[in-house]
Amino acid sequence: MTRAASLVRRHQGRRTGSAATVNIHVRELAQLFNSLDPSPFWDRDLDRGAAEFIEGEFRDKQSAEVWHLHVHVHEGNTSAADLQTAIETYYGRLAQSARLALREHWWMGQLALGGGLAIFLLSMGVRGILTRMLGPLSPILDEGLIVLAWLALWRPAEALIYGWVPFYRNRRLFERLAGIRVAVRQSAPTSAAAHSGTATAAGPSEPVKTGNHHD
To answer: Whose CA, among 38, 106, 152, 191, lies 20 to 30 Å from 202?
Structure first.
């Protein structure tokens, strides 16, 4: 076995065993859901604050192959089935929306590129016609037509070369979150204090959240 193949094998072994875990402490599971959504728990949208925390924590853990979400509940139902289904459904919908947004971005970028190319050809054609009819053009008119021609191509080209990246990253994040592994555990109310050094708590009715990363 060559040295390069050995390094690749060891790297793949570390990646296969890597896992990222985010812990959330709540009084009850209902805190993780949108209270205004009348749907059953398994089809209900997540609370926006909880969803933003989950997305933000895992966005920084892209290198981990497996993602775990551990929810510590102080009282009430501790079944993970509904929460697992709710997260899969919620982020499945967001992933589908992100895929459609990426597809629309590509379509609009190509359409804009076609329009920009038409303006580019028109501007350069007008410049050539005026030059043949009037001779050398004034610097303002000449440079203005050239700038207009290149500006018509600049934004569409930028959108197609760089603009798709945020859409792709969101799609990838939501697809991975839809496959997250959820565990719900009973926890005493005082246990949140043990995480006071790393936890983030906004208010008395909001969940206490902590994030951990294990390789």
So the answer is: 38
Calpha distance 203→84 (Å, rounded): 25
Torsion, CA 44, CA 50, CA 55, CA 61, rounded to 10:
-130
CB-CB contact of 86 with 43 (8 Å): yes
Cα–Cα nearest to 9, from 64, 1, 20, 66 = 1
- Full-model pTM: 0.66
pLDDT classification of 162: cutoffs 50, 70, 90: confident
CA distance 206 to 6: 48
The whole-angstrom separation of Cα 120 and Cα 127 is 11
